[in-house]
Design brief:
With 264 residues, the chain is of the alpha/beta class. The protein has one domain (5-23, 70-255): Beta-carbonic Anhydrase, Chain A (3-Layer(aba) Sandwich), CATH 3.40.1050. The chain is 41% helix and 13% strand. The protein has 11 helices and 5 strands; from the N terminus they run αααββαβαααααββαα. The chain has helices at residues 5-15, 33-38, 42-65, 113-121, 137-142, 151-157, 161-165, 173-195, 197-201, 236-240, 250-255, and strands at residues 76-81, 99-104, 127-133, 206-213, 224-230. It has a 5-stranded mixed beta sheet with strand order 2-1-3-4-5, sandwiched between helices. It starts with a helix and ends in a 9-residue tail after the last helix.
Amino acid sequence: MKKIYPAKKMLLSLACAVSLACTPAAFASDHGANEAQTDKTPTKTIKAALEGNDQFRYDHRDKHFEPFQDGQVPNLTVVSCSDSRVHTQLFGIQPDNNIFIIRNVGNQVTNSEGSVDYGVRHLPTKILLIMGHSGCGAVKAAMGDYSGETSGIKAELDPLKPVIDADDHQGDFSVRLGKNVERNVDFQVKAAMELYADKLKDDQMVIVGGVYDFQNLYGKGRGTLVITNVNGVTDINKIIAHPVMESIYKGTVVNHVGSLAPAL
């Protein structure tokens, strides 16, 4: 495999991911964050969003926007879950013009294929990161009976059936959920590898699967981005030894690689 230095640089940034930032101050009331969690009227919510935007504009000014006002050149395409607990600040990277992110329930590739195509085929990203997360509600719902849901929700959960079919239904539900989240990541990586086989063949990109773990299921600390798959490779030792990892400090790689479930 050819060396892909931009991909390695981006992967190093991913490996240094930090915990999800706390709730922005703009959404906290005068009485503290606890009240903000229970007193979210429509008026207060939009007021906080507008005032927060004013603060963002004040902090960044025009020079922040000038480099990308006429076009984007992100380094990373991410397929992430829509879950409100998962956001770009977990990477520790300035997201503006750096991260092209696609979000849907269950971080599914084919559910947003056109958007992923754009990031992979029309933008200069060298890494496609498919990122699940601990406690994923979509995977949890797919593990149960969701026949009473709306047609739209059912249509988005149905593609997860092959993931759930691999579940042996043995043991604690929360443990099974964690494993199924990882299995879903593997399933999505496989789908992406089929869609972008030409890119992989020519070493133009690397497809990375990972789990944003804010429940510490992997024992690496809350908020860790755990790499579980690189181009279909799921064995921990093989991921650590993968060519795309060779320029990254081994201790960093080891701290960000893990597995809960056997590959599909």
